[in-house]
Here is the input.
Amino acid sequence: MAAEAVLYPTNSTVETVIRVSDLAKAYDGRPVLRGVGFEVKAGERVALTGPSGSGKTTLLNCLGGVDRADSGSIQLAGEPLESLSGDALARLRRTRIGTIFQFFHLLPTLSAAENIEFPLQLLGMPRSERLARVDSLLRRLNLEHRADARPGQLSGGEMQRVAIARALSHRPAVLLADEPTGNLDSANGGNILRLLRELTDETRTAMVLVTHSEEAAAICHRRIHLRDGSIVDPE
Amino acid sequence: MTERPSILWLLLRRMSLRHWRDAPWQSGLLVVILALGVAVYFSIRLANRAVLASFSNFTDILTEQSDWVIRSPAGTLPASILPELRQGLGDRPVHLVPVVETTATEPPASADETIGQRRTYQLLGLDLIALQNLRVNRTANRSSRSPEASVSWFNQTPSTQTERTNRFWEFFDSPRSVFISTALADEKRLKPGDSLSLVINESIVPFEIAGIIPSLPDRPAPPRSMLVMDQSMLQSLNGRPDRIDRVECVLEPGGDLDLRRSELKIRLDGMSGGRWQIESPKQRRDSGAMMTRAFRLNLTILSLIALVVGLYLIFQALDGAVIRRRDEIGILRALGVEERTIQQAWLLEAAALGLLGGLLGSVPGWLGAQAAVQLVGRTVNALYRATSADAAALEPTELLLAVILAMVAGILAGWAPARSAARTPPAQLLVRGGGPNPGPRALRSRPLALALMAFGMATALLPPLRFDGGIRFPVGGYASALCWIFAGGIFSGELLSVLGRMLRPIGPWSPVWRLAVSQIRPPTGRHRLAAASLSCAVAMTAGMAILVGSFSQTMNGWIERAFQADLYISSAGAQSASTDNRISTAVWRELVARADVAAANVMQAHEIQLPGGPTMVVGADIGFTRDHANLAWLKAPPPEAFDRSKNADMAFVSESFTERYQLNAGDRVTIPTPAGSRTLKIVGVFGDYGNERGSVVLEGSRVAGWFGTDLASSVILKLKPDTDADLVRTEILSAHPGLSVFTNSHLRREILRIFGQTFSITYVLEFIGVVVAVVGLAMTLASLLLQRRAELTTLRALGMTHFEIAHASAIEGALTALAGLVSGLAVSGALGWILIHVINKQTFGWTLQADVPVALLAGLGGLVVLSGTVVALAVGRWGAGLPADREE
Here is the structure.
């Protein structure tokens, strides 16, 4: 397991980390995505915008391999997702993808530090290395004093900072963020966006950010707009 | 206020029912668990009822219900009583129906058969002509139908009048003609003229089927085991000529029946002079009910295990539903629905679940009753009285009771969740997320657990409640057991918490373990409830195993000491505790006179009526008892008790007798005998695990004299050294195929087998309890995973594989099972003690030596943890495959 951490270095050498072609997906016969295609390069931040029900989260789930498209293809860090088994997808997620949710989705029974450490543990990283990385992330995000707190004891901003730390702890190639500021006040939201920009710049991590917020979209290099499951305004 | 019913209905229709429909598997499983609990209870109740119904007077079916029954307080009545009664009653319009009744069985299929496997028949000897006249008379009085419309005893085959007359006389010419029930005729394809062999005393008697027992209008059909023959023929067959078992008095219709009945009773009492006792048919039925009350009550309580375990599960399911639906409840509260209405809606939902479970459980319950009636019947046969019950009828009152019980269980289990749903402020309900629900405070209260244990210890010291007939109900014992079980439930949750803390250091070494252990650190209310239900099931099962293990150990010791002779002989018809089959004087004399016999004990047992209910008087060779049956003396008798010249008024009594009648060594007991009352001094008390009614043992020659009979109930032979017991047994059996002859080892095996069979139904009930608890664990984990669906999405997003998620769930389930198991085993120690020293002692009067069946308990533990892990793994795999939680 430790070898996997070496196989996937912090900064991807693959220039195009996401390549989506002609992606389609329907729920109960109702099309949610229709012929979606785009590319994202390493270090690039892309905002995925569109009205509710336009297919943003479904597209994000397909990118993360937690949902499968009906047709089309996704290549993530050079791996064609449609040909990977469930377990292979899981391994890809634990090594190459970080995810941030609107509602934080921290594991409620683990402390803040344990939540950040968890993906590293899944990678099989040695304990001392894990702890060092968790410490550095906690410091970087001003969360040292909240290391032992459980999610129920954290504020919304703190929870989202822990979620960011968890998503970036294993230095993924791609960060998928679903409305990361949607559940925060504007001050906290601003802080989170600044952090995301700084951290993705530092690590050259590609980010796909689903958002309704202009402020959030503004930190991205470009924007993909979805309407009724199709890209209508590609930049 | 007027809106409440309509709002309630709206909530049920638009919310609860839709939730049930949306989660059909979950709701279905919950109803099935309730149904299983109800089915077990219902089947035992129906089986108990069937056995009780079989205690009814068989003659009621033939004569319509008697008004009074005259019987001897000890042994039988002389036939001379009839003219005396007739004369004493003058011209009162009373029919006197003398009855001779005995048991008979089918002949043994092989010499090595097991006891109690053959059906026991009740053979009634009646004056058929008088009975026919009575029937014609009563039918004519009670209905406008022609008397000929009812089938008679003597005209069952179409024939001319002359042929009928001839058949009538043929019946009396044939000394072995017997009438059988339609049920038996159908089962064995028997018809008039066919033969049927039965064992009566030591003889195999070939009977000729004279016809089918005619049934009365509006009376139940004669049971399969009922056989009727002419009275004098039966008296001659059972070796008791001129003796009758009872006289039934049937008043002719007309006038104020109650007044005439009372007047008749006064008259009969006046004539008795203590020679007979008069009881109503109801009292007769009640005596059977009373005799088996403790046994039936214990069985009913055991049958409630599955429902009690189910209560925990319903509680946790509804509690989980409150959590799942907290948004909905919050919205309802925000919209202005009153607290009370929400609470009522939840209670109604719980009651509806109970109703559904109750109705669904009634079908398997009725089917289960058909099997249970065999198991209950066998035990009642072995310990109390012959029962003919072979099928259980569907009783509407029992069904209603079972459904009500299920609804009450639902409401009880739903009370706290309903309160929690109603009382949580809307703002709190609408907050998304939040920490895990720690469950009801009572389930986390260590002081409550300690108080329950202390209360349990105190109630265990209470004496039993005493009822008529010497019946004791160990109310303190049961209360104590319940306290310990609930205390164990609380401690199982605490144990789970401790396990979580203890295993925390493993977290850094394995993400799967970290995740699993974090779920129980601290445990949620549902974890606690799942562990508590397992603790409850394990405690009851293991406690019962300790009781059975101790019983087995004690029985082994008792058998080892008390059964030291070589051959044990009885009638092959002796298949139940109340058998009337004896060994004739000629045959037992032949047996004891054999050249290879060193010593013999010819025993007589007679049922007598004491004020506290029926008990047994046993006549035995006291010297033989001293030399060849080392009884387990709780109070050893003095040496003169074994000296025939000095022990004239001395008796030994069993431990059950001392418990039941509260008499002990040194006290005097007066027993009724056909020769009048006799007062005996109790000089010794022995342990006897063969019956719970108690027995009085004294010198056999005195019993024979008092009861006026030499017939033996059993004969025990000690053979001369170097005699081959098997060879002697073969010789005796070939000369008397109607006898049962057991060698020492065979009898020991049989006693242990019957003992095991007695407990077989309890094993079934306990097993069901454990199954319900394990299913409950699966349900708990499934609902926890559903509740954590967003968390599962996160875990998958973090890269956990399906197997890792399932693995974490399996560890969580195994730890919950382990906590339930450890707590259950600890409580089982207390339960075992209560069962042995309080409940068993107070109910049956048996002193047992405690013994812990370590291997059995280890097996139970392994089974619980293994099944808990397997179901948790299965649930985990299912949970890991749940579709992603879409929140767009």
About this structure: Residues 142-151 of chain B have pLDDT under 50 and may be disordered. The longest strand of chain B covers residues 597-610. Residues 339-383 of chain B form the longest helix (45 residues). The radius of gyration of chain B is 33 Å.
